[in-house]
Amino acid sequence: MAQDAVAPRTRAPGFGQWVRAAALRVRKFELLPKSPALPPVDYNPGLVAYVAATAVAALALAAIVIVFRQDIHASLPPDAPTLAVGGVTIFLMSVYAIRSTGPAAIQWAPSVFVHLGLAVTFGPAGAAVGAFAEPFGVTVRNHNGWFRTTFNIANEFLADTAAWATFAIINGPTVLGHETYKVLLAGMCAGFVHFTLNSGFVAVVIHLSDRRVPIREVLRSRLTVLPYSIGYGFAAFAFVVITVPDKAYGFVALLAPLILLHGFLMSYTRNLKAQEEERAAYEKEERRLLLKAVEASEAERKRIARDLHDGVVQNLAGMALTLSAEASHLKGLGGIDGQRDELLELLETSATETRGAMKDLRTLIIDLAPPTFRREGLQGALLEVLRDMKRKGTNAELDLPPDLRLREDRGKLIFRVAQEVLRNVAAHAEAKNVKVKLITDEGSAILSIQDDGKGFSEKDMERRRAEGHLGTAAIVELAEDAGGTLTIDSEPGRGTLVVLTLPIE
Is the pLDDT of residue 226 over 60? Predict the structure, then answer.
């Protein structure tokens, strides 16, 4: 498990050409989704001092175990083929590791099992192989800089060596030990120590690189890995048992199931990523079609409004003028008998009703394609609706964010919903006060409309639907089609609260 302790750089200054060449070769075989680049390292004094202290501690420990290795513990003598197999396995696992999420931002692979196996079998030599193989694998994968790689090498060596020392102290002076329970206990404790040191070093360095990330949060995010580390330690003694008689062949046989497991995880991750991309493409297409439908609906509204204005309204206007002129003409004639009196009254009534129809049509035209929305946006259009309510005796209040930024289609949808709700308030609620509030929160726009009117019950709503009043049902469906929700909370005698939650993007 290689730790992304410090954010990777886009380039890796200070590393040899072989690192960049290896990275290019790896990228030709993209077996896993690309890892997102993190921000560059912030070289603050605390971070630099901590990483330097960790590196010095690792060097000092290496010197101690080299000088006193026979006195500390009699490990198996280093076996070059076995160490090479273990090192190559760890390197490849770290190159093709699976990135996990969370504040720790780790590269996950079951390589801890190999780390522990090398450490408890070959002591400091095995710990050194693991400590170098994994950080360099992560460097090839992510183009890590020298700073983070230095920390990772020191971190891994300290953790691996501590795990070996824990195993040696509990298991006893010989490599294999004499009692099975002691070997198992020693392995579990070695796994726990490795996890604790590794996670602790990483938590501190992440906190020092970004003070906003608390150490406790990083440790909590890594707790899911603890059972694996203990389990790997539990089985680590098998490396000792099988390596003594069979050397590298036994070591490879033990690694085979682990390699197959990692291959399965890689395949699963690729399939999961492909499904996510397919779902994202589907959602993007769905949003595109919805936007196209909204635009088509808006264009159709404008066409209908234009046709009504240029056709029916003009005809009604001409009819009203003709009726009014005829009525005025009849009034100017003397000796109007009863029949003419009735005709005059009919003409005047017809002219009045025609003007009323024109007014209603003009209101409908504005509702279909409000010119204020095109000129002044959402706030201006809502203020116009609320001003009309104030003229009719309802105290109306509007609360919008001063820096509100919405896509045009989202603004239109919010206005349509608000317009329909406020129309219902004006027509049925008998409210004295109404408040319209819009906020944005975590990628969503939340519109709330609350009135102190007479309210209604569920039965009232069902009755109005049965009578053919589909306005409320229409805006609920409109909100859901756009990926949002619309809730209505009302009871007779306590007013109504309507809340629209709509994704901004």
Answer: yes
Cβ atoms within 10 Å, residue 38: 16
d(CA 481, CA 485): 9
CATH number reported for the structural domain that contains residue 429 in this entry: 3.30.565.10
What span, in angstroms and rounded, lies between the C-alpha atoms of 325 and 24? 89
Residue type, 39: P
* 113 within 8 A of 235, measured Cβ to Cβ: yes
Query: Which sign, positive or negative, has the C-alpha torsion 111, 113, 118, 123?
Result: positive
Q: What average pLDDT does the segment 225-231 reach?
A: 85
Range of the domain at 395: 373-505
457: helix, coil or strand? coil
pLDDT digits (tens, 9 = 90+) for 127-151: 999 999 988 888 887 777 788 889 9
Q: What percent of the chain has pLDDT over 70?
A: 68
367 domain-assigned: no
Look up the CATH number of the domain holding residue 109: 1.10.1760.20
Cross-strand bridge partners of residue 2: 107
Q: What span, in angstroms and rounded, lies between the C-alpha atoms of 32 and 273?
A: 9
Single-letter code of the amino acid located at 498 = V
What's the number of domains the chain is made of?
2
Please enumerate in sequence order all residues whose Cβ is within 8 A of that of 90, keeping only pairs 6 or more positions apart, or say none.
111, 114, 115, 129, 130, 133, 134, 137
Helix axes 226-307 and 146-171, enclosed angle (nearest 10): 140
In a domain, 315, yes or no: no
pTM for the full predicted model: 0.53
HSE of 165 in the Cβ direction (CA atoms, 13 Å)? 16
Task: Say how far apart CA 490 and CA 454 lie, in whole Å.
Answer: 9
pLDDT in tens, 261-314: 878 877 887 787 788 888 888 877 776 776 666 666 666 566 666 655 555 656
d(CA 448, CA 128): 62
Cα 4 to Cα 55: distance, rounded to the nearest angstrom: 16
State whether residue 447 is helix, strand or coil.
strand
Query: Do 190 and 42 share a structural domain?
Result: yes
Residue located via tokens 């050397």: 247
Confidence of residue 402 (pLDDT cuts 50, 70, 90): confident
CB < 8 Å & 24+ apart, contacts of 490-495: 490/455, 490/456, 490/457, 491/455, 491/457, 492/454, 492/455, 492/456, 492/457, 492/460, 493/454, 493/455, 494/455, 495/429, 495/431, 495/450, 495/451, 495/452, 495/453, 495/454, 495/455
Indicate the pairing of strand 395-399 with strand 433-441.
parallel
* Residue spans of alpha helices (H) in 308-370: 314-332, 338-368
Q: Which amino acid is at 301?
A: R
